[in-house]
Amino acid sequence: MGSEDEDRFARLLREHSSAVGNYLRRRLYPLTPADLDDLVEETMIVVWRRLDSVPTDAELPWMLGVARNVLRNARRSKNRRSAFEATLPPVANEASAEEHVIADTSVREALTALSDDEREVLLLNAWDGLDTRTLGAFLVISTNAAAVRLSRAQGRFRELLSAAEVH
After folding, report:
1. pLDDT band at residue 98 using 50, 70 and 90 as cut-offs
2. Cα(76)–Cα(96) distance, rounded to whole angstroms?
3. Rounded to two decimals, what is the model's pTM?
């Protein structure tokens, strides 16, 4: 790879590594904070190897997609380790990043009641600041479809939150 590729990669790191790190940090559970640097580094290695595949009009969503896959792989590895360690006495789990951030029980319960897809689109918008155009690029759907998914997820979240507050 040439100097132009190195410059582009350096720019991608400069502009998007903190967003990638934040994305992974908020979704780290059941992994530990000690795993975060490794996950960010592994994501950037994939970005470097596939630099020609990074779309110029959707760099961040593409990189977040890579981070999501890296995180999934890390979770699978953790699950395999956990199955192996199942014979050991149980150790108390650390609280997830979501549990640290969301102190209000009704909000936590409403988020938990959402489907994984609803929660992901809602959190990508609220926590990662992705608008519907960027959500569409991240989810590989149209902007209109992303807006519909986000609107439905927001509506369902409001319903769940209202129901939790009534009880």
Report:
1. low
2. 17
3. 0.57
105-114 tens-digit pLDDT: 777 788 889 9
What's the rounded Cα separation, in Å, for the pair 86 and 132? 42
CATH code that applies to domain 1-93: 1.10.1740.10
d(CA 84, CA 6): 41
The 8-class DSSP code of residue 114 comes to S
- Per domain, the residue ranges of the chain are 1-93, 102-167
User: Which token pair is 43?
Assistant: 């994501």
Confidence category of residue 103, pLDDT binned at 50, 70, 90: very low
pLDDT, position 136: 93
Name which of 14, 21, 53 is nearest 37 in CA terms: 21
CB 99 within 8 A of CB 108: yes
Considering only the top CATH level, what class is 102-167? mainly alpha
Q: How many CB atoms lie within 10 A of CB 6?
A: 12
